[in-house]
Amino acid sequence: MSPLLTPEALGRLLDEHGGALVLFAAQWTDSPDDCVQEAFIELTRQKELPRCITAWLYRVARNKAISMSRSAWRRRRHETLAGTLVPAWTCEEDRPPVEKEELAAAIQSLDEGLREVIVARIWGGLNFEQISEVVGASISTAHRRYEAGLKALRERLKLPCPIKTAICPK
């Protein structure tokens, strides 16, 4: 905590401005309490107190609320899109699509190393270079894990391989 800001002074600021700051932040986010809390935490981390603490708190709470709102919007958009996408390899013309629950269970049953690569590639849209950075392995290892994960999923879901390769000779 800033040596210039005593716990008593912080408590007074919270009592005097906390409610109004929550109402102010609620214009932009569904979690205004979190924004106000983060603003006060940030205040305690300042080496020097702002010239006008009240205005500073409002500005920080506003910025946090806007950031939270943008994050929530991006998350909702991504989740909505991800929920509607079914990878092409889960469907074949002569076979009904794999049920989401069945696919989720099959993915969950994979070893963690295979599962994280499959999810990052298919639903995260990451390329193998990015995946290799995330998992801390080489690009070729990330690719091998991806292929092994797909093979394991095909076996668990009893799906024929759509393309004949060395990995999937059928």
What does this protein structure show overall?
With 170 residues, the chain is mostly helical. It has 2 domains: 7-83, Rna Polymerase Sigma Factor, Chain: A, CATH 1.10.1740; 88-157, Orthogonal Bundle (Arc Repressor Mutant, subunit A), CATH 1.10.10. The protein has 7 helices and no strands. α1 (7-25) packs across α3. The radius of gyration is 25 Å and the shape is elongated. 15% of the residues are buried.
Sheet with most strands: none
Whole-Å distance between the termini? Answer: 65 Å
* Proportion of strand residues: under 5%
What is the CATH topology descriptor of the largest domain?
Rna Polymerase Sigma Factor, Chain: A
Structural class: mainly alpha
Provide the CATH architecture of the largest domain. Orthogonal Bundle
Find the count of extended strands (DSSP E, 2+ residues). Answer: 0
The helix tally amounts to 7
Order of helices and strands: HHHHHHH
Rg, nearest Å: 25 Å
* Mean pLDDT level: 85
Backbone shape: elongated
Topology:
Blueprint: H1 7-25, H2 32-44, H3 53-84, H4 100-109, H5 112-122, H6 128-135, H7 139-157
Helix pairs in contact: 1-2, 1-3, 2-3, 5-7, 6-7
Task: Give the key terms.
single chain, 170 residues, mainly alpha, Rna Polymerase Sigma Factor, Chain: A, elongated
Quick recap of the structure?
The protein has about 170 residues and is an all-alpha fold. The protein has helices at about 5-25, 30-45, 55-85, 100-110, 110-120, 130-135, 140-155.
